UniProtKB/TrEMBL annotation, chain A:
Family: Belongs to the bacterial solute-binding protein 1 family.
Subcellular location: Periplasm
Name the UniProt record assigns to this protein: sn-glycerol-3-phosphate-binding periplasmic protein UgpB
Any single Gene Ontology cellular-component annotation: periplasmic space
Gene: ugpB_1
Location (main, coarse): periplasm
UniProt keyword list: Signal
Keyword Signal: yes
Originating organism: Falsiruegeria mediterranea M17
Transmembrane segments: none
Position of the signal peptide: 1-19
InterPro entries for the chain: Bact_solute-bd_prot1, SBP
Automatic annotation (TrEMBL), chain B:
Keyword Transmembrane helix: yes
Chief place where the protein resides: membrane
Native source species: Falsiruegeria mediterranea M17
Organism ancestry: Bacteria, Pseudomonadati, Pseudomonadota, Alphaproteobacteria, Rhodobacterales
This protein's name: Lactose transport system permease protein LacF
Keyword set, alphabetical order: Cell membrane, Membrane, Transmembrane, Transmembrane helix, Transport
Amino acid sequence: MKLTATAMALALTASAAFAQDKVTVEFAYPYSHLFDVTYEAMMPAFEKAHPDIEIKFRATYESYEDGTNTILRESVSGNLPDVTMQGLNRQQILVDKGIAQSLEPFIEKEADFAKEGYHDAMLSLSTFGDNVHGLPFSVSLPVGYYNMDILAGAGIDKMPTTWDEVIAACETMKASGTKNPIFWGWNITGNWFMQALMWSQDEAIVDNGRVTLDSPEALAALEQMQEIFTKCEMQNLEWKAALASFSAGEIGMMFWSTSALGAVERSQGEFVLKTGPFPGMGETPKGLPAGGNAAMLTSTSDDPKVQEAAWTWLKFITSGEGAAEVAKTTGYMPPNKAANEVILADFYDQNPNKQTAVDQLPLLRDWLAYPGDNGLAITQVIYDGIERIVTGDATDMKELQQEMVEEVADLLPNG
Amino acid sequence: MAVIDTTPPGITNNTQAQECRAAWSLTAPALVLMVAILLLPVMVALVLSFTNYSLGNDGFDWIGTKNYDRLFSRSTYEKMFIATFTYVVTVVPISVGLGLGAALLINSLGRFREIYKTIYFLPVMATLLAMAIAWEFMLHPSIGMINQTLEMGCGTVIEAIWPFMATGCADGFPVWLGDKRYAIWVVCFIGIWQGFGFNMVLYLAGLTGVHRELYHAAEMDGAKSAWERFRLVTWPALGPTTVFVVTISCIRAFQVFDTIEAFWPQGGGPNKSTYVMMFAIFEKGVQQNLIGIGSAITVLFLIFVMFLTLIQRWLVERKVHY
């Protein structure tokens, strides 16, 4: 008895001493169904390379919106994590409010930062006022997912390249007995596909601090959506239910972010899955919004050790083997040259489905943030508006556009 | 006063003051806690409802009753009121009725009482959020249990006699959670399923308080049928229980949130058809950090609940004492 007590006491002091040497970095990320596997795959290598740093994972954010909102709340209550993953279009507000720190001091200390695969095009996604505030971790683009068995069954042998061809494919599939030909992911983060249709026409949804929902391009986007939803008789599925249906082989075509490819492939039923480029409105898209997230430093710790450890972690996950895991486990592309060209050299040859998004990279445009404090509320207005098209509640697109413009104007800082 | 009071004034005042001090110091902790935990937050919400405060900002502007104007003029909030009242008006009567029915049936049983009680009470004990996730799987439009069960009826005689089945078999069964015609009723159904067991237990407790002699007396007075006995004895005797059950059900119905958050984390259902008040408070105040408008909805919510409680007090004091 006495012996065990002594042993326990010894073990306790030992682990206490051990814990003192370790620096703890608190970290939080969104979309556990996509990224859990990624971080699990990264951790062994990180622990081996940096045994003195312990990564403490906080509860995951349900979505980018939830992530931003959680950080804003945590900054008020004073318990920010050291590193957080934020949606590319949600970085701005954290920079404006001074929650995310500039990474310039850390980058200056790095001898060969560019050699590690960080290049300007990628850093520009997280650069605000000449200062890098985040390191992009994963970049995605919208793509088409096709169930080739259903397409072949309906006698379609070519992937559609325009929305008109998509609608024609829908009608062919309906005629041959597919009840659920399409899922068009309008509800992905509430505004991303709206921006996708706007960028397709080379129009930015936010231009010089003005939201361009009143432009003819915005109307064209809404009308395009209406045409797809009504002519394809698309069901209003919640996105998790839609992904489940597609994986079960019930949906012919799904338009969604390439990011879900890993998750879909893991739960895929018995059918041939192919991805294809995102169709355009009449012609090939002129641009597409970059989805994805970036790692931001939000540590409030004064301890240089913690800051340094947080930077180490941040760098590890966005470069080299860490970044390569992103491509291997999800459908995201690591926005890192070294990871893409060296470590993943034959990866894309072996995984042609993941190649689609890479091919679309020249179209990459910013996923724009809405100005002011009410970015999340503006996203909700767009979400609600599109939902009314899906459910058939709104039939006159001009009227809907007008309502959305007015509601957004209320939420803008100068409105 | 001065004429009657002949004792030296000093002593009385002293004892009285002492007692007074003792009383105050004894109630002080409770009072302080009540003010700090219950009243103060309500006051803060009331004050914030007249501002445009957004979480994380340093300051805010006074905007008067603008938040309340919006509540009563915007179509979003009109949908909120419609959803909330549809839910309350549907769930309260049905869950109270089923609770009473189940209690009477169980009370009339000789054996298996406990088993039935436990079964009906199970959904109450389960976490609604966890149950909602289970329901979400069952309600999935193509691979969910509910639509697959309905599909088994295709090609049978049910299809011929029930138009709903006929259209379902031809064009596919409803997307329960994505169709604005069904969404609120699905939520209502789950609310009733989850809540009536609780009402049943309250009624069972109420039934134990009804004296046997009353039934015998009623029978002697000519109340022969079971319905007569229920109308003349059971129902009036359950009066106080009913008032309590209805009030509690109303307040619980106003508070519905878990199912909606689980089914539609973004947006409050198709076309906001299930955008109930609690969810609106959460969305505005917590998700979007718009504390001002969130507080305004909260204040309105408190007014509704307060109103219900006052009605209950009034009924208990005036109407249902025997």
